[in-house]
Amino acid sequence: MPLWDQLKSRTSEMSSQLKTKASTFKNADFANASMAMCALIAAADGTIEPSERQKTAGFIASNDVLSIFPADQLRKTFDRFCSKLESDFDFGKVEVVQAIGKLKSKPDQARAVIQVGIIIGGADGDFDEHEKKAVRDACFACNLPPSEFDL
To answer: Judging by beta carbons within 10 Å of its beta carbon (0-12, 13-18, 19+), is residue 145 exposed, middle or buried?
Structure first.
């Protein structure tokens, strides 16, 4: 099976798992970590293109797992993290990864946020090395082995 087909199959499987667990994740740390992950993936190459911001905002609005939160709240949080990454990428990245790391004591929620990152990273058909590194950084922040996610 070609690599892209495997990734597509895996992200579809992850989406199904996340839908099943969504109601147990309704808390501020999960919402913030999810938006931090979205911003981290959008900025994985060091910049956030307007098209990346728009696509990610579309994902946020249409994702079943994230639909348990008010869309406007998620959008504001996503924009806040994006602004931090745009104004000072290195400092912003520290804050974004810390927000994700708050789920360290909640491994199921941390795994769900990692899966959100993988889904977003692969949404355009190219889960590139910058995006993979961003997801690995998030894994380390949550004390999850990247190998668990084939990274």
So the answer is: exposed
| Burial of 54 (C-beta count, 10 Å sphere; 0-12/13-18/19+) | exposed
Structural domains in the chain plus CATH codes: 26-146 (1.10.3680.10)
| Alpha carbon 93 to chain centroid, angstroms | 13
Listed in sequence order, the DSSP H helices in the chain are 3-21, 28-42, 50-62, 71-87, 89-101, 107-122, 129-141
Mean pLDDT by 10 residues, the chain (151 residues): 50 56 75 95 90 83 83 92 94 96 94 90 84 95 93 85
**Residue 2: partners with Cβ closer than 8 Å, 6 or more residues away:** none
User: What is this structure's pTM?
Assistant: 0.83
**Angle in degrees, CA 144, 146, 147, rounded to 5:** 115
43 with 82: CB under 8 angstroms? yes
- Residue whose entry in the numeric block shows the structure tokens 């996610």: 149
